[in-house]
What we know:
The chain folds into 3 domains: 45-197, Phosphatidic acid phosphatase type 2/haloperoxidase (Vanadium-containing Chloroperoxidase, domain 1, Up-down Bundle); 213-346, Rossmann fold (3-Layer(aba) Sandwich), CATH 3.40.50; 349-480, Tumour Suppressor Smad4 (Sandwich), CATH 2.60.200. The protein is α+β, with helices and mostly antiparallel strands. The protein is elongated. It has helices spanning 2-16, 20-44, 48-60, 65-74, 79-101, 135-150, 152-171, 177-197, 237-248, 263-273, 283-296, 310-314, 320-329, 355-369, 371-385, 440-449, and strands spanning 213-214, 225-229, 253-256, 276-281, 300-304, 332-340, 344-346, 349-353, 389-393, 396-407, 428-434, 459-464, 466-471, 479-480, 483-484, 490-503. The chain contains 16 helices and 16 strands.
Amino acid sequence: MAGWNATAAAIRNGMTRDHPLSAIREVTRGLGRLDRAVFEAVADSPSPLLDRAMPALTRAADHSKLWIVLAAVLSQGPPSTRRGAVRGLTSLAATSLLTNQVAKRLRRRARPDGGSVPLARRARRLPTSNSLPSGHAASAAAFAVGVGLESPGLGIGLALLAGLVGLSRVATGAHYPGDVVAGFGLGAAVAVLGGRIVPPVVPAQLPRTSALRVTAPERPDGSGVILVVNPASGGGAGTDVIDEVRSALPAMEIVTLGPDDDGPESLRSAAGRAEVLAVAGGDGTVGCAAGVAAAQGIPLAVFPAGTFNHFAKDIGCDNVGATVEAIRTGSVWCVDIVKLDEEQTVVNTASIGAYPHYVATREKWEYKVGKAAAGLYAMIHTLRHGQPVRISYDGNTVTTSLFFLGNSVYLPSGFAPARRTRMDDGLMDVRILESGRPYSRLRIMTSLVLGRLERSPLYHELQVPEFSFTAVDGPIAVARDGEVDSPRTSARFTNVYRALQVYRPAP
């Protein structure tokens, strides 16, 4: 109470002086007395808990050891915690440099007299540097706020831990409370400033609706289903599908495509006779079958028989058994498709430029060196060897080597879309990477290495129901679901919401 009374008196006396500097000096002296009074109150408080916990905590925070260990743990978690660990350490490093080289030299303040601190709690070795501000508190706040910008939940917990570290500096006699408060303010300010320079990633929250199931009869023996098989797909995987399906669904009719057969015509012919159209082939064949089934208004069953089977995997039919079970139990659900110029169907992706080459290179190397390294190598290789094209969309003209358009929203964000958790969101995922600006390659590589590509002005990501572009310099080829179409001067993509009924496990 004495400290509070002294401060109040100092303010009253200061306000009555003629010179404003006198008032400021009196307030400063009053705050100093209050600071020392609070320090003495903490020092004089008998507490076995403080005696045991505070010295250990303050030693753990020496040289930021505590925060470095926590950052190492966070680096093993999901993307948000990994980004938080990097941002936290970066903020800590900048704060430590600013505190020791600048802030501690602005105003000299002696360390507290720790004689009143219990011996069991007293710091073994008091620092000789300036007391104001506390470097431990500054580093703790910088790390906690830095992590919190990327992962708010973790930030709250770390803020509590940072507060305990600050308390330990007072309890062990190393700092006055004012030093700790100043350190907290400095560290938090550095982290927040870093967040303004490099904004944190904020995941997009899209509206979610319930998946739509269609009432369909059970087909335990596969009756009413006609399966069209491309035996050449996936290095002969189509032939393996035939053997499995014949034993599992004996009533199913199977049509095997020969080398001279017209695939689209065979699919249309089968759809005209079938209650359910089934297909075993690559993504290109599946895309064609999807367009036929949607036009006929009948369900589609997909057996994975291609190289990558992206569509089959994303609907949960990554093996023959999953599709067989869905047919037997009548598990039919609606998914979106994309129409290109109202004629051709896209079930997975469309692209222009060198994106197909980028995907092939990444998938070739990801099992050897890991996804991150493979993505970096594929990006470098594509930017060096790919031929950029100029397109115009929404009033913008850009030069790009990497253009991606997906049926429904893909994850993760950035230029390595890999999977879909929903296929009935009514949206298309458009991602464009510019390569025509000054030093674009260097800027893209730097952003990719730092994990900040989605924040680069060269990267554009849209979630839209329609998208159109015009080729500025003449016709360009458009690849859809792994198949390359004839060059065209313009393209219009439209999402057709829940237009396709597919057999799949419950999403």
